Every structure is written in C-alpha cells, then in structure tokens.
Amino acid sequence: MKIYFRYILKEMIQPFIFGIAAFTAIFIGTDTIFRLTDLYVQYDIGLAGLLELFLLSLPQVIVYTFPMGALLATILAYSRLNGENEITAFRAGGFSLKRLIIPALVLGMTVSLGAIGINEFVVPRANYHFRLLEHEFKHGEVRPRTQHDLFLTPLDRASGGPDFILYARLFDADRGEMESVVLQEYEKGSPAILIEAERAVWVNDNWYFYDGHMYQIRRGEQIPQMEFSEYIVRTEISDPGEIARLDRDVDEMNIRDLGQYIERRRAEGHKAYEERVLWHQQLAIPFASFIFVLLAAPLGLKPRREGCSATGMGLSVVIIFIYYGIMTLGDALGGQGTISPWLGAWGQNIIFLAAGLVMLYKIGE
Q: Distance between CA atoms of 330 and 345, rounded to whole angstroms?
C-alpha cells in the first residue's frame, strides 16, 4: 500500500468512527431510548434485560449510520487536507485529484460490503431475538411458535405454477403438529390430488396425516379415492422448524429468505410491492456508503480554510436529509406500485451517483 494511500486513509478513519458514533447516538436518542423506556415503565424489565434489548437494536441502526459516517469522514478529511494546503502539495508532486480520491472510494466500497454483510447475517437474527425477548418481557413466557391459518404455496420452477398448496387451521412448531389440514398436490402445473385430514404430525422426518380423505382430481372433478386413518405424505413439505422460520416479520429475514417470501406472496396473487422495495433496500442502503463517498470527496476538495469541521458537519446533515427524504418518497411510491419497486429503492442512489460522477468529472477538468 503506497504512502499517500495510507496517509489519506488514516485521515478518514477517526472522523468515520466519530460519524458512526454521533449519528448512532442521534438515532438511539430519538427512537430506541423512547421505545426501551416505554417497555421499562410498563413491564418488569431489569437493567440486564434493557441492556440486552439495547444491544440487539444496534445492528439495524449501524447499517443506517455507516453511510453517514463515510460521508462525514470524507468531507472532513479532504477539507482538512485542502485547508492546510496538503492537497496543493500532493498536486505539486504530480498527483491528480482523481488519484487522491481513490483511498476514499476504497473505504466507501469496503464499508458498503461490510454493511451488506451485517444486514444479511446480523440484523435479521438481532431483530428476531429482540422480538422474542420483548414478547417474553411483555407476557412472561417464551413466544409460542404457533400460527393460525397457515398457508404454504411453494413454486414449481419447471411449470411456473404451485408445487403444492397447504392450509392448516392451526400449526404448532413446538409439537410438530397441524390441525384441520388441506393439501392440494399438483402435477405439471395442474391439480392432481386433494388430501383433507383432521391433523398432521411430524414423525421420523415425515408428515403423517390422520383421519382424512384423499381425492383424485380430473377436469375439475373430485373423485373419491380413499379414506385413511393414517397416511404418510410424500410431498416435500418442510419440517416444523423450517415452517416456523417462515412466520417472521420481513425485517427478520435476510435477502434470500425475503426473496422466497416474495415469490410465495406473488404466487398467491399478491403484488408484494412493499416487500419488493424492502428487498432492494437491503442492498441499496448499504451501497449508499460508496455513493456518499463519491459525492463527498469532490465537495471536500473545494477551497475551504476556516471552520471546515462545522461546515463539513452541516453539509453532511443536509446531504443526509435530502437522501433519506428522497428514499422515503421512493419507499412510499414503490410500496404502492406507483413506480417500480426497484426504482423506489434505488432512486436516491441513482440521483446521488449521477451528481457524484458529474462533480468528479468537473474536478478533473
């Protein structure tokens, strides 16, 4: 790693950490603290429980503050270098402005990839355990893994239609049981067999259906085939633990799980606009770190000698306000289907990327 690269990168690390800490404190002070205080007042939660809830809420906040920290670090670092004529010294040594921006772009891309990793592997688990713990504090018991009116409709990629449709009036993951079960099996995209049972139990890696009827379906007709007291279903229905994991809020899912959830929703006839926007946001928001750096570096290189820290902080807040304002608007429009969900999630990134590229082009003139 070249000396100039390490030098500029070192200038950015401290304001980056400061930016994350500052903006995280703002988020916590305006939302998390009030939520935890409300839980503390209404329910019997000790300090250890509050601390655990607080720590579980941090990953989601940090994903939002990573881009803010990268933005502030870039503006402050280059403003200081510019204000103390170090940029002039670099240029006198044969460095172009575009070359001097490379360390910031590397930092921005690294932060974006790190935020994607946190968003994928840490945030869903943290949100899930936060709600489990919150339920335990509120109700004095572990949240039961039960679900009323369970629907499963996995897609058959070969035919484009459903692989099967499963309905259960009640599903209990802890006992591995379902009540009032209806299973519609498909062959080559067409209904083939209908099974109705009083209950189903997960035994030895198979679902056993009890006390039911089986019908063969031909041209819209149901032809009684057999009654049974016990029947082993050969359809590849997930085990109770996997089905229980499907009963999660969308912010408790990673990109893969959310994509599968969207596929099921669309197979059931839903547009799933809001979920599709959220799926794209799981990449768009972390990628904002790179976008912010690309925009902030040319801004930091503009002549600014006095009050660079205060000016940089103020400029960062303005940029963040505009960015998240556009993001909120895109979220609303994309969630309603007014615009495409991907555009609703990526619109602000596209606008800021274009602005950053234009500014980058101008400083090289």
A: 6
Residues 310 and 303: their CA atoms lie apart, in Å, by 15
Following DSSP, what letter does each residue of 38-103 receive, concatenated? Answer: HHHHHS---HHHHHHHHHHHHHHHHHHHHHHHHHHHHHHHHHHHHHTTHHHHHHHTT--HHHHHHH
- CA-based nearest residue to 200, from 242, 164, 241, 172: 172
CA distance 207 to 238: 9
Assessment of whether the complete model's pTM goes beyond 0.85: no
Here the tokens at position 254 are: 């990673």
The values of phi and psi at residue 2, to 5°, are: -70, 155
User: How many Å apart are CA 359 and CA 351, to the nearest integer?
Assistant: 13
At residue 222, the pLDDT reads: 63
DSSP codes, 240-294:
HHHHHHHSS-GGG--HHHHHHHHHHHHHTT---HHHHHHHHHHHHHHHHHHHHHH
Question: Rounded to an integer, what distance in angstroms lies between the CA atom of residue 269 and that of residue 249?
Answer: 19
For residues 345 and 280, the answer to whether their CB atoms sit within 8 Å is: yes
Domains and CATH numbers, the chain: 3-136+273-363 (no CATH), 146-246 (2.60.450)
What pairs with residue 202 in β-bridges? 207
236 HSE (CA, 13 A, CB side): 5
Phi, psi values for residue 286, rounded to 5°: -60, -35
- Polymer length in residues for the chain: 365
Which one-letter amino acid corresponds to residue 66?
Answer: F
Spatial neighbors of 334 by CB under 8 A, at least 6 apart, are 273, 276, 277, 340, 341, 342, 343, 344, 345
Give the per-residue pLDDT at 303.
66
Per-10-residue mean pLDDT of the chain, 365 residues long, equals 89 95 92 89 86 95 95 93 89 89 95 96 93 84 77 73 87 92 87 92 94 83 80 87 78 88 76 95 96 93 62 86 96 96 97 94 74
Question: Which pLDDT belongs to residue 5?
Answer: 93
Cα–Cα distance for residue pair 49/313, rounded to 1 Å: 35
The span from the CA of 358 to the CA of 364, in Å, is: 10
Number of other residues whose CB lies within 10 A of the CB of residue 37: 11
